[in-house]
Specification:
There is one protein chain. A hairpin with a 5-residue loop joins strand 11 (242-246) and strand 12. The strands form 2 sheets. The protein has a 9-stranded mixed sheet, sandwiched between helices. The protein has a 4-stranded mixed sheet with strand order 3-2-6-7. It has a single domain, classed as Ribokinase (UDP-N-acetylmuramoyl-L-alanine:D-glutamate ligase), CATH 3.40.1190.20. Helices cover 35% and strands 28% of the residues. The protein is globular. It has helices at 3-11, 58-67, 82-93, 140-153, 172-184, 210-216, 227-238, 278-291, 296-310, 321-330, and strands spanning 17-22, 24-37, 44-57, 71-79, 101-104, 110-118, 125-132, 159-164, 189-193, 205-206, 242-246, 252-257, 260-264.
């Protein structure tokens, strides 16, 4: 793929308007230093150091699009709690509009708490994760408000990204209306869905990883079914323009048709530091590329470069245009 063309596409990301509809999640990191083993149980005792809350889930896609120069509009539900308020504060400090985030008072903000432990001279690593989930679906009132937001604002967008973490936001009615709107106004729709890929028939591009794509087709990778067979079957069922399956250190494969399959090797080291949120980065970069009128193949190559940068960072991270350009230059 011609790097000069990819760089021109990157430069055109600026101010492209992208709506991110999905499950807004807070990624909380609690850092501590290991001191000794407890006498009460065979567990480590950590001396508390600090706490950091950053944007995760669909909100990580929001961060990525913002970092790449896009004009991002998050749409979703948060709780009326301190974590939700903190997420709003983070976005406002980044100059990201929050008026399309709906608060549901009886539903907590989804939070993934990671306990990070390490010694005084060692790197801190995750020892346990605690998830606070929203066990109830969104209310009909919240659903109605979000549908009105979609109806009012999708016509003004350059692209739409759905980040569906199966946390109760995306209802059947909401999906149907969303798909109808993007088709009516000819907007690129990228879908990053862990469990519900098949509910987005007609999406422009879906971006599952290999462990998500196989079950969606009722297949198992270890059953002799290869990525090619899974990808083509998924493309046929989705009836969209493309399927981009990420495969970890094996790179990613783009399916646009039986005779149009593009495998892209990873860039840089195959020893990732942390893959947390890498899927969000891939989907975000691909969405911006499509908003900038890139082809699916160009979008996939740019997403691959972005992934090569972000997996070398610890925790839920973002990537910038300059970092992608530097990655490109380092591989010349």
């Amino acid at each position: 793929m011609e790097k000069e063309k990819l760089i021109k596409i990157l430069d055109s990301f600026k101010n492209k308007k992208v709506m991110v509809l999905g499950d807004m999640i807070a990624d909380e990191y609690i850092f501590g230093k290991t001191t000794r083993v407890s006498r009460e149980a065979p567990v480590l005792i950590l001396k508390y150091d600090s706490t950091e809350i950053i944007l995760g889930g669909a909100a990580n896609s929001v961060s990525n699009i913002h970092a790449l120069g896009g004009k991002v509009f998050p749409v979703g539900v948060i709780g009326a709690d301190s974590t939700g308020r903190h997420m709003l504060t983070i976005m406002r400090e980044m100059k990201i509009p929050t008026s399309r985030l709906v608060t549901q008072t009886d539903r907590p903000t989804i939070t993934k708490t990671r306990i990070m432990a390490g010694g005084y001279h060692t790197a801190r690593q995750q020892v346990i994760r605690i998830d606070k989930e929203a066990d109830m679906p969104i209310t009909q009132e919240c659903e109605g408000r979000i549908i009105r937001i979609l109806t009012a604002h999708i016509p003004d967008m350059d692209a739409v990204l759905v980040s569906d973490y199966n946390a109760g936001l995306l209802t059947e009615r909401m999906r149907d209306i969303l798909l109808g709107l993007v088709h009516k106004y000819h907007k690129p729709l990228v879908v990053d869905s862990r469990y519900h890929i098949m509910k987005y028939v007609g999406a422009t591009l879906v971006t599952p990883n290999e462990t998500e794509a196989a079950p969606a087709m009722g297949m198992r990778l270890d059953s002799g079914k290869g990525i090619k067979e899974i990808g083509l079957k998924l493309l046929e069922k989705i009836q969209g323009k493309g399927v981009l399956i990420t495969q970890g250190r094996s790179g990613m494969t783009l399916f646009e048709g039986k005779n149009k399959i593009t495998h892209i090797n990873i860039v840089g080291s195959d020893e990732a530091v942390d893959v947390t949120g890498a899927g969000d980065t891939v989907a975000s970069c691909a969405t911006l590329a499509l908003a900038a009128n890139a082809t699916l193949q160009e979008a996939a190559y740019l997403a691959n470069y972005a992934a090569g940068v972000v997996v070398m960072k610890r925790g839920t991270a973002v990537v910038t245009i300059n970092e992608i350009k530097q990655k490109m230059e380092s591989l010349v």
